[in-house]
Amino acid sequence: MNISRPSVHPLEAPPATDAAANGPGVRMKDLQGMPGTTGGLILRLFQLLFSVLSISVMATTSDFRSATAFCYLVLAVGLQCFWSLSLAIVDIYALLVKRSLRNNLIIHLFTIGDGITSTLTFAAACASTGITVLIGNDLQRCDVNHCKRFEAATVMAFISWFAISPSFLLNLWTLASQ
Questions:
Q1: What is the largest CA-CA distance in the chain?
Q2: Contacts with 7 (C-beta within 8 Å, 6 or more apart), sequence order
C-alpha cells in the first residue's frame, strides 16, 4: 500500500497571512462616480437634468425640424434621457439595498451603453453647433430663426456629454482592471 505516514511527510500549519483577515482576494474600492455609488447617482441625475433641459429648449422652438442636425440632437438626447433615467433607478436601488454593482455582466452593459450614448450625444451636439454657426454667422439669419434657443439646447447637450464622460471612463477602467 502507498499510504503516506506522518513521519515521512510531516504536516505543517500554513503560514498566517493577511488573506484570512481581508478575504480571498483584494477588490478595488468603489470610486465615487462608479455604478452603485452616490457619485454615480449624482452624475446620472446631472445627465438626466441637462438632457431634459436640452430637449425642452429645442422642443419649444417651432422650426427645429428644419435642420436634420437638430432632429438628430433631439433623438440622441432623448436616448440619453432614457438611459440616464434607467441607470439612475438602478443606482438608487443599489444604494437602498446596499448592493455593489461590480458584476462583470453589469459593468459590460453599463460601459457599452455609456459609450454609445456619449458618442451619439457628442456627435449630435457637434452637428447642431455647426448648423447654429452656419445660421448665425454665415447666413446672418438669426432674426428669422431661434439661434439663442438652438445655442442653449446645444450647450445643454454638451454639458450632458461632460456628465456622461466620467461615468463611461470609470466603467471602462473597471472593465479593463477585472
A1: 100
A2: none
AA letter at 84: S
CB contact at 8 A, 100 and 36? yes
50: amino acid identity, one letter:
F
Closest CA to 47 of 122, 100, 106, 112: 122
Contact by Cβ (8 Å): 50, 157: yes
What cell numbers appear for 75 in the block?
433623438
pLDDT (tens digit, 9 = 90+) per residue, 108-150? 999 999 999 999 999 999 999 999 999 888 888 877 778 889 9
Report in angstroms the alpha-carbon separations of 55 from 8, 23, 48, 80, 138: 79, 48, 11, 10, 25
pTM of the model: 0.78
Q: Cα dihedral angle (63, 64, 66, 67), rounded to 10 degrees?
A: 160
Look up cell 438626447; give the residue. Answer: 77
